[in-house]
DNA sequence: TGAATGACAGAAGTTGAAATCTGTCATCTG
DNA sequence: CAGATGACAGATTTCAACTTCTGTCATTCA
């Protein structure tokens, strides 16, 4: 035992370590329990299933990005610049994760393939942040968007190549930055009031 | 033997049938040869490898879309309408293929994962068609695009959710049409001369 | 009494031997 | 002699026995 009492957070940290070390295909609940010096039954007291544990780890991992992006979002300046900074940060954050933490990223990718609750919330969260920026831009007369919610979703979809893990293989290609710029320039022009 | 002489085209058709029936994971060169009533050595006289055969089948299959899209592209009317019709047709064609021919579509998806020559040409071809429409629009004063090639690539990337097989799982979702419309409206606004 | 355990059943994954497949090529055939 | 064949080596896949894992729960422990 690492300590007298076993907490949800301890389990999450241990699970994250195990996932990082072995990857989603090899990591087992028994491994996590062993890392904590407890029996695997104890892990099941805190999480109903291995899937739930995996999801909780991924959720915590994704929240790092949310915090970072929220900071960019609330920084001052024109909405266009903030939108660009936000998208650019999202791309950079995802790319960094894919590179720095390939095993956790693989866990995240597996989760995407399962249409999980956690991913849906992650996406809804991101689109919500986009919507705020766009609404701000409309309020300030910088953007024209009859339906900011739909516009936010459209911006999210149009930049999907630069944040969806399905395209992570492209993120190392030369020229990807230019392609991101071209897409984002097109989008900004599309939002601008004419 | 199906006939006195074995042609490349006969092999392609037989291979397509076999792929359709068994899927890319199960289809073998021996199956193809058996379907033709020849030895598998004869197939290797026309194709250097199983991979080359798979690629040739996929290429032929993808060309159907090219022909269809070329027709849309050269139809009259304003560039904006043609661009929308083109994108819309591409989306519809891909979705139809994914639904009607799941096994051939799986073959195509596997090919995408291998960064093949055929896919690169397919993409270059499509972006080329886009570029023509955009250049036309610029010439007619309808669009503003300093670099039509880059703009074409940006339009292709921004609509990737609606033509890349990695997202085929989303194509059956309710609301996908609206999402396509929202993205495309954003893009058209971004291209329009102001 | 609330948290932890570990034995257990059924599911999932591993392993290694056997079967099949890919790609080559010397030989055959019309 | 161009085109087809089928035997062959090495690579890959299949299959079934075996191992490990997941999730449950009656029991133990503090």
Distance between the termini of chain A: 65 Å
**Could you give a short account of the major beta sheet of chain A?**
none
CATH superfamily of the largest domain in chain A: Tetracycline Repressor, domain 2
DSSP strand tally of chain A: 0
- The secondary structure category of chain A is mainly alpha
Report the top-level CATH class of the largest domain in chain A: Mainly Alpha
SSE order of chain A = HHHHHHHHH
Number of domains of chain A: 2
Q: Note the quaternary state here.
A: homodimer
Largest interface: A-B, 26 and 26 residues
| Known CATH architecture of the largest domain in chain A | Orthogonal Bundle
* Number of H- or I-type helical stretches of chain A: 9
State which percent range the strand residues of chain A make up: under 5%
List segments of chain A where confidence is low: pLDDT < 50 over at least 5 consecutive residues. Answer: none
**Share in helix of chain A:** over 70%
Structure description:
- The structure is a homodimer of 194-residue chains.
- The first copy, chain A, has 194 residues and is mainly α.
- The first copy, chain A, has 2 domains: 8-46, Homeodomain-like (Arc Repressor Mutant, subunit A, Orthogonal Bundle); 57-191, Tetracycline Repressor, domain 2 (Orthogonal Bundle).
- Chain A has 9 helices and no strands.
- In chain A, helix 1 (8-22) packs across helix 6.
- The radius of gyration of chain A is 19 Å and the shape is elongated.
- The first copy, chain A, starts with 7 loop residues before the first helix and ends with a helix.
- The model of chain A has no long low-confidence stretch (mean pLDDT 95).
- Chain A binds a DNA duplex (30 and 30 nucleotides) through helix 3.
């Amino acid at each position: 035992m690492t300590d007298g009492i076993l907490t949800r957070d301890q389990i999450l940290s241990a699970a994250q370590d195990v996932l990082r070390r072995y990857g989603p295909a090899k990591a087992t609940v028994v491994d996590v329990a062993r890392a904590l010096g407890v029996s695997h039954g104890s892990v099941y007291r805190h999480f109903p299933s291995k899937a739930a544990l995996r999801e909780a780890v991924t959720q915590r991992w994704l929240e790092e990005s949310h915090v970072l992006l929220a900071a960019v979002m609330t920084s001052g300046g024109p909405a266009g610049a903030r939108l660009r900074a936000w998208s650019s940060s999202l791309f950079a954050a995802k790319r960094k994760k894919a590179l720095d933490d390939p095993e956790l990223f693989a866990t995240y990718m597996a989760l995407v393939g399962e249409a999980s609750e956690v991913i849906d919330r992650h996406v809804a969260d991101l689109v919500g942040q986009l919507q705020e920026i766009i609404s701000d831009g409309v309020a300030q007369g910088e953007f024209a968007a009859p339906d900011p919610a739909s516009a936010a979703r459209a911006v999210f979809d149009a930049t999907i190549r630069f944040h969806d893990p399905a395209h992570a293989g492209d993120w190392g290609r030369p020229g990807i930055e230019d392609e991101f710029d071209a897409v984002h320039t097109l989008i900004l022009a599309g939002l601008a009031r004419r």
